[in-house]
Each structure stands twice: as C-alpha cells, then as structure tokens.
Specification:
Length: 279
C-alpha cells in the first residue's frame, strides 16, 4: 500500500504558530522532506521531534521528487515542510505535489501560516479580491512581461521580494504602475514585525538611504477602475467621433450600434455622438 504525502505548514516567524496536528504528523511520519534541514532542525528540536529528515529544495526538486515518490509508492509516509509557511506556495513543493498526484499518491495539506495571507489581512488594503505574484521573475524579458500584466490590475497585488533586489523592484514597479499606495510587511509574526504604509516613490527614497533588510511581503493597491476608464476615454479622444463610429462599422456593427458603442467608449450620450457626426 502506498504512503501518503503530508504538506505541513510551519511557522513563518513565531515558533508557537503551529497546529497540534502538524506537530503530531511530523512526529509520526516516516520521513520529513525539508527545504533546508539546518533551518528545520531548530523547529524539530523545539518540539522534540526525532523523525529522520532529507533535503528537498529548488536545486534538486525534479530528481529528488522522483526519489520521494518512489519511497511513497513503497509505503513510506512523508511530510513536506518549507523554510516557513505552507509548502507548495511559491516554493519547490509544487513539483513534488505534481509528481505525487501523477503517481496516484494521496496528498493532503495541513493548514497553517502563509505570509501572503497574514500580510493581506493586516495591511488595510482591499482583501476582497487580490492576486498573488510570488517573486517577480529575474530574467529581464519575463520580468517585463509579468509587470506589464499588472499595469491595469484592479485587484490588490501581493509579491515577495528579497532585500538585495528590493530597491530595483520598487523602481520597476514605479516605472510600470506609477506611484501607487503600498504596504511593506517585514518580520511577520516576530518581535519586530512591521507594516509600513507608504507610496512607491517614498519607499524608493527611504531605501536609497537605508539598506533593506530581510525578506519582504509587498502589498500593492490595485489600479482604480475609474482611472482605467478615464485613460480609455482619453485614448479614444485622439480619434474623431466620425472615425470612431466608422471604426466599429468596419467591424460589422450597424450605424446605430456603432454610435452606441462609441458613446460608451467616450462617456457620452448617443445623442452627443449623433449630433457630432451629423455636423
């Protein structure tokens, strides 16, 4: 009978932020696959957990996932832990889960801390709709494409960033998004936890004078929908009303429907459009 893969959420800072179920599971599985065994041993020692560990990280995730799946198929029960938070969220655990499911292995997630949820819940920006981008790509072309997709994003945006790339990321965000309201979350759940409410421009000034420290969760206000509508209306104003209507008629709309759509684009009434093209 095959074993089971347990995705165990671990503390993102405060060691008390762990469930009884996770502790019990870590004690009773046959093997713990840890992103960094040197880091995880501190947690295991804190809870007197003696279970054998093996490393599973970004640089060995494909071949090591194959090894772990083979163990699971033999009947070994394995717990997967990341350095902090919930495995499989912006970390190599995603690959192991993918391979395990493909092999017919039962996978379950033991809920607990996730930095992005902690940050969104306490940042004071809209939490009704948000999008998680994780770490932005480091390859220039991929990074440019990722940022372009966010330019007109109306949902709250959440990203992770390392200190050595943080100032560059702020400048890239400003180039694409403009001077948005953001929250910079650091040391979450720890003694020196902080959430800084600031604009991108002011954050750039701050970190040009003060070296960023520690990994950060950045929560970015989504673009205002009315602002998007104004920009769209402004773009149409570069075209005459007559050309605007003809543009839609060339796409197969009747003159009546073309005027209606042009009026919608420009924030005008259909009568205004009619009067303009009949001059």
């Amino acid at each position: 009978m095959a074993g089971k893969l347990y995705l165990c959420a671990t503390p993102i800072g405060n060691l008390d932020d762990i469930t009884f179920r996770v502790v019990d599971t870590l004690k009773n599985v046959d093997l713990i696959a840890a992103e960094d065994t040197r880091h995880t041993i501190k947690l295991l020692n804190h809870y007197d957990i003696k279970t054998k560990m093996t490393s599973y990280h970004e640089h060995n995730k494909y071949e090591k996932a194959e090894v772990l799946v083979a163990e699971l198929l033999k009947g070994t029960n394995i717990a997967l832990v990341t350095d902090a938070g919930t495995p499989g969220i912006s970390d190599p655990g995603e690959e192991l889960v993918k391979q395990a499911l493909a092999a017919g292995i039962e996978v379950t997630s033991l809920p607990g801390p996730a930095a992005l949820i902690v940050a969104v819940s306490m940042c004071g920006l809209s939490s009704r709709r948000f999008v998680f981008e994780g770490f932005l790509p480091t390859v220039k072309r991929e990074r440019k494409e990722a940022l372009a997709r966010l330019e007109n994003e109306t949902r709250t945006i959440v990203i992770y960033e390392a200190p050595h790339r943080f100032l560059k990321t702020l400048k890239d965000l400003q180039d694409v998004l403009g001077d948005r309201e953001i929250r910079i979350c650091r040391e979450l759940t720890k003694v020196h936890e902080s959430v800084l409410a600031i604009t991108i421009a002011d954050a750039i000034k701050l970190y040009e004078e003060n070296e960023p420290k520690g990994e950060m969760v950045v929560v970015i206000k989504g673009k205002d929908e009315e602002e998007i509508a104004q920009e769209e209306r402004a773009s149409w104003e570069e075209m005459s009303v007559k050309d605007h209507v003809e543009h839609y008629m060339q796409q197969g709309l009747s003159e009546k429907d073309a005027m209606k759509q042009a009026a919608r684009d420009r924030g005008l009434s259909k009568r205004d459009i009619y009067d303009e093209i009949k001059k």
